[in-house]
Amino acid sequence: MEAPNRPRVIVVGAGFGGLNAAKALRHAPVDVLLIDAHNYHTFQPLLYQVATAALDAGDIAHQVRNVFRRQRNVRFRLGRVTDVDYDAKQVVLEDGDRLPYDYLVLANGAVYNDFGTAGVREHAFVLKDLDKAVKLRGHILSRFEAAAVDPTLVDKGALTFVIVGAGPTGVEMAGALVELFQRVLPPEYPELDLRVARVVLVEMGPEVLPPFGQGSRRYAERVLRQRGVDVRLRSAVVSVTADGITLKSGEFIPCQTVIWAAGVRGHPLGEELGVELERGFRVPVEPDLSLPGRPEVFVVGDLAAAKDAEGRLLPQVAQVAIQGGKHAARSIVKRLQGRQAEPFVYRDLGNMAIIGRSAGIAELSRRLLGIRMRGFLGWLGWLFLHLIYLPGFRNRLSAFVSWAYNFFTYDRHARLILAMGPGRGFPLPEEDRPAPAEGEAAPPAAARRARARGTPGEAEPPAAPSTREDALDREAAARAGVPAVAVAAERELVRAGRDR
Ligand SMILES: Cc1cc2nc3c(=O)[nH]c(=O)nc-3n(C[C@H](O)[C@H](O)[C@H](O)COP(=O)(O)OP(=O)(O)OC[C@H]3O[C@@H](n4cnc5c(N)ncnc54)[C@H](O)[C@@H]3O)c2cc1C
User: What domains, with CATH codes, occur in the chain?
Assistant: First the structure.
């Protein structure tokens, strides 16, 4: 319960770092305000399972207010923080509100880094939050619907899925995608030979899964290749377009789906903090995770450039954020008690990844006896650990049931193409519908009305639609009915610039 004159702690971000900072202040004599742009916490390591229809979006997210329903000193505010006013000790929200703090924990996380590669922002998908994972799922499934109606789209890359970056996210996504094509979809697409669907995993470095030991890296690459993933090592992407990607070698791979998993950079809020950023746009921090010269401000998780004893940047992984959030909370309590905050020491628990069904890798740290597991045991270990860390009992139960169901039936129940078109449910008057994109055919009804109004220039649809694929998609949508939703979603995505 909020009490007068208690120090006020603002935590920005309800990801792994912020959530754990707020939880760790449970018994502290402070009032905590947790701010996030979403009203839920996302368990990002499982986003790819939403994108590949293995789990529902609701299985990997948990409402923040529900997390703190029994912690009386925490309040939640839905909003986006755009600035920090150190002199006034206030955070500034997008809507202009200014909220005062005595202590501040910044845990905004990271965004994808396109490394300046042409076309990535416009044409690539990223897996960073839930709505983008749902959009990606809809896009993937809509490619199959489109190819089922018009198999000539396969030659144009409708069923070629390129993943850029062979870190854990890229590898897990590749493994889950091939499984979807090979095991789940074939019985439901009798009109398509799904052996033509392929996943290309493009990696600039010489090996997949760089954070893992050599044995695990080789195992992962072998399994990926055995399962049909086209692994391209030492291959850099120079550009991405709506039709495909171009590699540094000059090779062009026609495809309609590019998933960018090539690395992250600190959240743009870091650039507003008035400090010189470190590598990867990460915010420099003192050993206790406070901002240099600002002992009342802490930065944790992916946003922070926290270092180990040898001065190496800590990895941008969940455990660093979880432990960092807890450490910031402890440091605040120590400051309140007039004691010195201690340096943050990261306790590495190890690495885990799966490459699809029954193939996993677990490399536990020496603290956990240095256990190494590969194959089925590694896969079970991964499932078990993710179930433990997934927030919320309902989510754990639901994920467990879905995984068991998927394992025994080879089915994935979450294969819904959900479009987020304009309007709120009532049919929109044609005038209010978004204008067709440049070069796109005007809707026939609009064209008819324009003709009736005597504006022939507008009335005639342009001779050629923007691309032949667009035309084919529209024809497919008109013939098959259901894919129209997917086509609308697609256009929506393109208009929105496939925002990151
Ligand atoms: C696809 C994917 C797979 C991953 N897999 C693994 C894995 O297997 N193992 C592992 O250890 N790590 C994994 N990671 C990394 C791990 O998820 C991150 O290291 C971790 O989430 C970082 O925690 P954080 O608290 O710093 O940021 P996040 O968890 O990203 O949380 C940031 C929060 O801040 C909020 N926010 C951002 N900006 C604002 C703002 N201006 N105002 C208000 N709120 C804001 C966001 O909405 C979000 O809720 C993965 C990441 C991704 C994207």
Answer: 8-37+79-112+265-336 (3.50.50.60), 120-262+350-409 (3.50.50.100), 430-495 (no CATH)
